[in-house]
């Protein structure tokens, strides 16, 4: 049964390149899951947790998102938590991989394991998060396509084939990805190149897309996998990365 809740906005503020919104909510979503918020538009908007505390969560959204128009104290009707989130229980070595603008849903996992490595790619340095926002215990690797910070290249292919993922994927016990879904097949192939027998739960990928209904009825969020067509709102939005490579 879908849970209907009332979330209260306690703070909204710029956190470039995003805006942050803090909500009080009795039952917040866990990492990778979401709530569907009524924000005045024709459809509900999915909100993912970028930070979690007891009975509250923080979400990061792009500028001009409807959340940025709310005032502190506003009450928002939400459905959820919904979906299938990240499963990392027992992992001692956790690898997080993201494009900078898709990073926020991975942030609650930065302290979810004793050893965490984070790889972030951006087109240029200005789009990378400040390293001061990353816990000092996290092993941070930066990649920029123009070479303005960190490694030169992309997640899949660095200069002279030196992408950090080729060393970190064999090290990790779990790997969680948050990228543009069009990149997942190439990243799945990289996992297969660097891991002899990756388990079904080793690489997990968040597919961020419109999720209007949250119950699999509207068919807007259809995702093609090796196991057939799935719905991101109920079967995901976190999927086995290797199952998304249908080429």
Write a concise keyword list for the protein shown above.
Elongation Factor Tu (Ef-tu), domain 3, mainly beta, 2 domains, 16 strands, 247 residues, 2 helices
Q: Count the E strands.
A: 16
If you average the pLDDT, what whole number results? 93
CATH-assigned fold name of the largest domain: Rossmann fold
Helix content percent band:
under 10%
Q: What gross morphology would you assign?
A: globular
The number of domains is 2
**Largest sheet data:** 7 strands, antiparallel
Question: What would CATH call the architecture of the largest domain?
Answer: 3-Layer(aba) Sandwich
Poorly predicted regions:
none
The proportion of strand residues reads 25-35%
CATH class of the largest domain: Alpha Beta
Please characterize this protein's 3D structure:
The protein is mostly beta strands and 247 residues long. It has helices at 165-171, 184-194, and strands at 4-15, 18-24, 34-37, 45-47, 51-53, 56-61, 75-82, 93-99, 115-122, 139-144, 151-152, 174-178, 203-206, 222-225, 228-231, 238-240. It starts with a strand and ends in a 7-residue tail after the last strand.
Concise overview:
The protein has 247 residues and is mainly beta.
Give the secondary structure arrangement, pairings included.
Elements: E1 4-15, E2 18-24, E3 34-37, E4 45-47, E5 51-53, E6 56-61, E7 75-82, E8 93-99, E9 115-122, E10 139-144, E11 151-152, H1 165-171, E12 174-178, H2 184-194, E13 203-206, E14 222-225, E15 228-231, E16 238-240
Parallel strand pairs: 8-9, 8-12, 9-10, 10-11, 12-13
Antiparallel strand pairs: 1-2, 1-7, 2-6, 3-4, 3-7, 5-6, 13-16, 14-15
